[in-house]
Each structure stands twice: as C-alpha cells, then as structure tokens.
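note to self: dont lose this again. the chain is below, predicted strucutre after it. 250 aa total, dont forget to put it in the shared folder this time
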Amino acid sequence: MPDFHGMPCWYELATSDLAKAQVFYTAIVGWTWTDPKMQGMTYMLGAAGAAMVSGAMQAMDGQPVAWSIYFAVNDCDATAAQATDLGAKLIVPPADIPNTGRFAILLDPQGAAFAMLQPLPTDGAGSQAFSAQDIGHGNWQDLVTSDPAAAMAFYEQLFGWKISRSLEMGPGMTYHLIARQGQDIGGTFAAPGAPFWKAYFGVTSVKTAAEAVTAGGGTVTRGPDPIPGGSFTLQIKDPQGAVLALVGPA
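---
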C-alpha cells in the first residue's frame, strides 16, 4: 500500500442545517449527495463526479459549525499518542469507522482542530478527496495560527511536513507553503484569534461561485484575490456560518 501518511484525505462538515447545507454546496461546488445509512446518525457523502470528497452531518450539542480536515496516517493509535506527547490535546480518542478505518480528532498545540484517519488496507487513503487541480475536490488547506513556526515544528515531527518557501504578502504578513514529500499541499500564516484549519475547494469560476454563494445565503468575506499561477481565491462563510475558501479561474 502506498504511503499516504500526512496527506489530506477527507473533508467533513458539521452543520446546524444538514438539508440546507447540501443544497448550498451542490450549487457552489457541484457535489451530489448519498446517504450510506450509518448506524445511529445521518451522515451524507458528497461526491465530485465518481470521487467521494466530503462528508456532512448535523452538529451535536456544543459542537461548532465548521469544516474539519482529515490527514491520512499509517497507525492512528500510535500517531495520536505521538501527537499528545508533542503537546496536542485528544478530543476524540482513536475509534473505528465501519468499512472505512480508524480515526481520531485532536487540537494541535496552538489549538487548531484536525483529524486523522488510518484507512482500511483496501482503501485508497481517501486520496481522491484531495486533488490540487480538480473541480469539486479539496485543492488546498490553510493553517491560520498564532505561531506558524511552533505549529510547523509539531507537524514536521508528526507528518514529516516541511516549509518549501515563504512569501511576503504585505506588511507583517508572511505566508509559508507546506510541503509533504516535495509536494505543496497547503500553507500557514500568523493571525489573531483562535487557530483553525481552512479547506479550499476547486470551482470552475470564482466570479460565478461568488454569485452563487450570495444567492444561496452565504457570505463572501474576501476576494476574489489573485494567487500565483493565474487562479483566484474566494474566502466565504456558508449560510450556517462554516468558514472555507474556494479557488479557481476568474
């Protein structure tokens, strides 16, 4: 089995209105939804074409409305233990997901929530969910944190990530690109407020997406902003308040 350790592998939404969220994301990123009939809960699977990309569920009492990013690991129990030894806080201890694998949810040492998944041996580590160029897939992820250097020291030990380069984006703003085995998979920068991971999903046009976000009851909080390579990013909140971003051509 290929080594996917540290690769983004799944995107999961906890929302206050599951039905409305499905309608919104179908309009924005084109997902189709299926219900796998999970025991004890409703968990909807979002697909871009034939590729399963995301999951969505009703937020439980006290659970924030938010997107979570899962990273593939070779051994969930061992990696979760290593993370806590490095200063992370375990929120959901390692547990099995029937027909999928073993997962855990943690807060990194700065307080950003992230999840890990040890897929079943026959599973492709959810590798279809992240694809830097494909529409409807996770194209990128940002770690917005209070201390990028400390955060990257943690993730380097846990996942083997490196900073491939750092870009000066303006006064007091340095953006660090995160690479896994030589492939850029995301970025990190310092910002005030609670640290968090933010998912970027690919769209065919950010201008069209911006119009659909507003029409669907969401909010454009920034953009479109040009990025290297000719694409644009759009920072948004969905109608229930979940923060995310979109990326694609104008």
